[in-house]
């Protein structure tokens, strides 16, 4: 029992690894997750619009991309993208750090695209018909009316996806990041291998919880606010109109 506790709760090792985890480990994880989310959102929006197109030659590539990147394990996707980029010997992608961002972006775009597509499809068809009645083109209706409403409805799902990207960033160690580029998991893993103790990995897990637990509660808060707003709007729509004299219209 004492050996088990010492293997997971060696406080001296935890104190030694915490400075690295909370400085460049936490920073690199957040940079990977934020940049990957931004690039993945751009690609995902393109995939969503292509997937909703009436033209099959736009829908088909979006469907193939989504099925491919959603069907492959995250570790395999990161390795394949990394090996492919390194084999191509692209100058500005020679460092594993931008390759890691690219791999996470391509992988997350498949999920984000489906999130955006479901949000856009949830907008009532009457919104598009009203835009056409006002003389807007299909593109203008999407850009100015439908997409903003759809994105607002999928905010909880987007935050959930950001949490998933934070956790998937632990797999980029396959690409061989240098010391200054190491994220949370790589720092904890290296320290555990060097000491033969799992306490650094426990400290790494606590750092991930420090990021993901507040975001999980944020998702619940956003979802609750959106549900309350929808409920109030429904009640307002169902309430009988009242004229100036207070009589029912």
Automatic annotation (TrEMBL):
Q: Which organism is it from?
A: Actinoallomurus liliacearum
State the membrane topology. Multi-pass membrane protein
Family the entry assigns: Belongs to the binding-protein-dependent transport system permease family. HisMQ subfamily.
- InterPro entries given for it? AA_ABC_transptr_permease_3TM, ArtM/GltK/GlnP/TcyL/YhdX-like, MetI-like, MetI-like_sf
What start-end ranges are recorded for coiled-coil regions in this protein?
none
> What residues does the ABC transmembrane type-1 domain cover?
26-219
Q: Write out the entry's keywords from A to Z.
A: Amino-acid transport, Cell membrane, Membrane, Transmembrane, Transmembrane helix, Transport
Q: Please give the name of this protein.
A: Amino acid ABC transporter permease
Q: Where in the cell is it found?
A: Cell membrane
User: Which lineage do the record's taxonomy fields give for this organism?
Assistant: Bacteria, Bacillati, Actinomycetota, Actinomycetes, Streptosporangiales
Enumerate the transmembrane spans.
Answer: 30-52, 72-91, 201-222
What the entry lists under Pfam families is as follows:
BPD_transp_1
